[in-house]
Write a sequence for this structure.
């Protein structure tokens, strides 16, 4: 589908936010586009809502590429990857995970008790049927069938709770969190476009943006913890942003469900207007 944010053309686009950027007005993916003027050989690069540009179902205005990419990366560098912010998120995750563990343990205990009760009743009914044989009332056999169905359901619920407990949110030590944040901040400044785009898909879930007159506003939804391996020792130097991003064998695959999602707003004035549409 042309409105698919994971469309190969978006993922392979030279526009760094392509595949992650959405229209705040209608929710459709935004495309990168270039307008060329032959008389003065000028080029204007911008992002535009796919519905506004193709079907005109949305009235969103186009957003200059440089202004949008600059404010997004500034937001990442100054806030999302600020070591103190990353540290606080890590504290929140540890606290929430401890609370979730207690909730899951209580649910597991209650579910196990319910399962034992059902199994005891099944055992009692089986004894009655064995004793009475063909004279067993129909209601007793129906009750047994109902309990056996309940047993399967409760066993599945118990298995699901066990899996949830094993799928814990990955946590980092405060020092690891600070190292990753500082390393990624530095990498943003020195990495090439290909690695920057790979890094974005490991940090950002999606970006929503719109243009209101000469102001661009939006919100970045981002993962914590970032989808990374342990950062290299600090004395190795260099960027290496693409070297330790764990992308599950694909350069643009998003982190899994164990990553909590946070959000941060941004706003920036546009200094130079684009030609009228």
């Amino acid at each position: 589908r042309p409105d698919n944010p994971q469309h190969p053309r978006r993922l392979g686009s030279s526009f760094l936010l392509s595949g992650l950027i959405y229209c705040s007005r209608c929710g459709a993916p935004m495309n990168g586009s270039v307008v060329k003027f032959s008389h003065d050989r000028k080029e204007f690069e911008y992002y535009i809502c796919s519905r506004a540009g193709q079907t005109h179902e949305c009235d969103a205005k186009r957003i200059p590429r440089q202004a949008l990419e600059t404010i997004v990366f500034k937001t990442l560098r100054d806030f999302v990857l600020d070591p103190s912010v990353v540290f606080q998120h890590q504290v929140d995750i540890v606290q929430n995970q401890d609370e979730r563990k207690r909730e899951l343990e209580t649910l597991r205990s209650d579910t196990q008790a319910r399962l034992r009760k059902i199994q005891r009743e099944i055992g009692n009914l089986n004894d009655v049927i064995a004793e009475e044989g063909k004279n067993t009332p129909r209601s007793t056999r129906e009750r047994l069938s109902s309990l056996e169905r309940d047993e399967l359901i409760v066993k599945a619920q118990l298995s699901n709770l066990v899996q949830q407990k094993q799928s814990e949110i990955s946590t980092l030590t405060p020092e690891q969190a600070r190292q990753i944040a500082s390393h990624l901040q530095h990498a943003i400044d020195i990495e090439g476009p290909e690695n920057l785009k790979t890094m974005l898909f490991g940090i950002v879930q999606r970006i929503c943006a719109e243009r209101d007159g000469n102001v661009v506003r939006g919100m970045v939804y981002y993962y914590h913890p970032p989808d990374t391996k342990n950062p290299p020792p600090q004395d190795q130097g260099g960027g290496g942003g693409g070297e330790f991003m764990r992308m599950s064998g694909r350069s643009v695959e998003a982190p899994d469900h164990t990553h909590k999602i946070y959000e941060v707003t941004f706003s920036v004035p546009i200094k130079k207007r684009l030609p009228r549409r």
The longest strand covers residues 215-224.
